[in-house]
Design brief:
single chain; 394 residues; alpha+beta; FAD/NAD(P)-binding domain; eight-stranded mixed β-sheet; six-stranded mixed β-sheet; 13 helices; 20 strands; 36% helix; binds flavin-adenine dinucleotide
């Protein structure tokens, strides 16, 4: 079997890249380890930057998002029993974010893929990448009991943090940068109306909390928990009690609780590999970098990588501009490091660390107070939150 671009992984990176390439007439095949239902069952990100919204429009998969997504003009920072609004639209010259779940983005992309007739192999096992530095790369995998060989010109490694693509690069090529945080986020999804019409990021001496949403009737709330915490130890009642304690009194009083429909703990990590390419292989999204979710950047960084790789591949396959491939990693990394910095800073400012004492708690509150009290400070937060611009490929 032959294609132009082999895409490993049918998460948002792989599906979006596949859709953009297909629309541009560039053949591609997606190979995914899990079933479509499994992929759709993962509850993850929910805040889309303007750049990602525009890319979904360009890919022709934005119709449902335009109808059902919630445009947010701002968000709230809560600390010291106060709520302080960051006016995204006002501070960034009109930019906003879109609240629309990753699950919904994935569903829209999967439906577009099926409608396009472009080939995808789900439930593929033993995926292996070959001849990454040689003349002609290829991928092998097992599907429905048959070993399949897929010859291609480029391989997009869109297979997440635990995927095979990054692991296929020989030892010593990549440099890894990592920070593992000593806590995680316990998240609850519930069919309850949101406590507020915008997101609330709360700093509290008991730990961080986030009030988020997926729709006017579905909420996603989080509380910071220690890395050793077990989800089984958190009844719904315990979760709601803890969340209320971390919110300003006026907000806690309005919180409507209900049975959880999903509950899970996500670890927090910052991670980047350099470079993001090796021969014919290009790492995209979580395969190359992870951010802690404070700042809502993980999915959005995946989208900016996709945009860069797509624009380079267009020029490669249409105009033979193969020299542009060399620029992929350096273009992506400039934006990635800035988002890593913002996510790390938001995490440091809003969470309780094991060594947080009364002095450092006051320092966090004062830093928040300083930033929200200064227009320059609020603008800095706003321009990072809506997403820094995508860099042109030339
Ligand atoms: C629990 C959790 C909560 C998160 N919450 C947020 C959030 O609130 N905000 C935010 O911005 N970001 C969040 N993120 C991050 C965001 O979800 C990711 O950045 C995003 O999913 C990246 O997309 P991706 O396509 O690069 O990787 P993934 O979504 O991980 O997709 C990779 C795909 O590759 C497949 N795969 C893996 N190995 C192989 C293989 N060997 N062969 C074939 N296929 C393979 C996987 O099954 C998967 O479908 C969260 C992530 C997690 C894990």
């Amino acid at each position: 079997m032959k294609t132009q671009v082999a895409i490993i992984g049918a998460g948002p990176s792989g599906l979006l890249l596949g859709q953009l390439l297909h629309k541009a007439g560039i053949d591609n095949v997606i190979i995914e380890r899990q079933s479509p239902d499994y992929v759709l069952g993962r509850i993850r990100a929910g805040v889309l930057e303007q750049g990602m919204v525009d890319l979904l429009r360009e890919a022709g998969v934005s119709a449902r998002m335009e109808r059902e997504g919630l445009v947010h003009d701002g968000f709230e920072l809560a600390f010291d029993n106060r709520l302080e609004r960051i006016d995204l639209r006002g501070l960034t010259g009109g930019k906003t974010v879109m609240v629309y779940g990753q699950t919904e983005v994935t569903r829209d992309l999967m439906e577009a893929r099926v409608a396009s007739g472009a080939p995808s192999f789900y439930n593929a096992s033993d995926v292996e990448l070959h001849e990454l530095k040689g003349g002609q790369p290829y991928v092998t995998f097992t599907h429905k009991g048959q070993r399949v060989r897929l010859d291609c010109q480029q391989i997009a490694g869109c297979d997440g943090f635990h995927g095979v693509s990054r692991q296929s690069i020989p030892d010593g090529v990549l440099k890894e940068f990592e920070r593992v945080y000593p806590f995680g986020w316990l998240g609850v999804l519930a069919d309850t109306p949101p406590v507020h019409d915008e997101l609330i990021y709360a700093n509290h001496e008991r730990g961080f909390a986030l009030c988020s949403m997926r729709s006017p009737t579905r909420t996603r709330y989080y509380v910071q928990v220690s890395s050793e915490e077990k989800v089984e130890d958190w009844s719904d009642e315990r979760f709601w009690d803890e969340l209320k304690r971390r919110l300003p009194a006026q907000t806690a009083a309005k919180l409507i609780t209900g049975p959880s429909i999903e509950k899970s703990i996500a670890p927090l990590r910052s991670f980047v590999v350099e470079p993001m390419q090796y021969g014919h292989l290009f790492l995209v999204g979580d395969a190359a970098h992870i951010v802690p979710p404070t700042g809502a950047k993980g999915l959005n960084l995946a989208a900016s990588d996709v945009s860069t790789l797509y624009r380079i591949l267009l020029k490669v396959h249409r105009d033979g501009r193969t020299e542009l491939l060399e620029k992929y990693s350096e273009i992506c990394l400039r934006r990635i490091w800035k988002a890593e910095r913002f996510s790390w800073w938001m995490t440091s400012m809003l969470h309780r660390f094991p060594d947080t004492d009364a002095f450092s708690q006051r320092m966090q509150q004062t830093e928040l107070d300083y930033f929200v009290g200064s227009e320059a400070g609020r603008r800095t937060i706003a321009e990072n939150y809506v997403g820094l611009p995508y860099e042109a490929v030339e």
